[in-house]
């Protein structure tokens, strides 16, 4: 299980996104939080910014769509060149069709669950996804406190993934920092989104190295 770190540009300076992408050369992904004022009470960025970022950096984009009607919009993020497109189970009306469409367009397909959404009903969809994202805060804002209550679900998700061959990546998102990443890694997460903990640090490169080392320590 290789540890991957995906810094969230939600915590970066939106006026200097290309520079902020370049500031994290040791990131595995750039996490791009798309919010629409409908699925979540916040508005961030959309397709034009993703298209621009795609040209501005070689780091693959990990697009987390916190939007209503992802069935309609998600394929366009794959077409725009995102390496990974994650839709929320709570918002999708045809998740299997949409996940298949994302994959057919060459991107990895992700399924996200809010903190209070159980993972068990989605076991049969694991064959349709490349990554399961478990929110460890309520979606909508960066800088929130990590919800420990989600950790048992991370453990159960790791068990389910193991039963299905262990191919699916398990991402945690929200409040992940030097103080919480070890608990997430011990519970079975392998892809870690970190916004404030990376872009709020005086040295984002060192912050990523420290997060990666802490996660590796926890699983070794
Ligand atoms: O999807 C979200 C919030 O809805 C996250 O990706 C946040 O952007 C993570 O930020 P931090 O909690 O790490 O500051
Ligand atoms: Fe996110």
UniProtKB/TrEMBL annotation:
The active site is at residues 33, 173. PROSITE patterns: RIBUL_P_3_EPIMER_1, RIBUL_P_3_EPIMER_2. Substrate binds at residues 8, 64, 140-143, 173-175, 195-196. This is Ribulose-phosphate 3-epimerase. SUPFAM superfamilies: Ribulose-phoshate binding barrel (SSF51366). HAMAP family: RPE. It comes from Nonomuraea rubra. CDD domains: RPE. Keywords: Carbohydrate metabolism, Cobalt, Isomerase, Manganese, Metal-binding, Zinc. One of its GO terms (molecular function) is D-ribulose-phosphate 3-epimerase activity. GO terms for cellular component: cytoplasm. It holds the Pfam family Ribul_P_3_epim. The keyword Transcription regulation does not apply. GO terms for biological process: pentose catabolic process; pentose-phosphate shunt. Its EC number is 5.1.3.1. Its cofactor is Zn(2+); Fe(2+); Co(2+); Mn(2+). Catalyzes the reversible epimerization of D-ribulose 5-phosphate to D-xylulose 5-phosphate. It is an enzyme of class 5 (isomerase). It catalyses: D-ribulose 5-phosphate = D-xylulose 5-phosphate. A divalent metal cation binds at residues 31, 33, 64, 173.
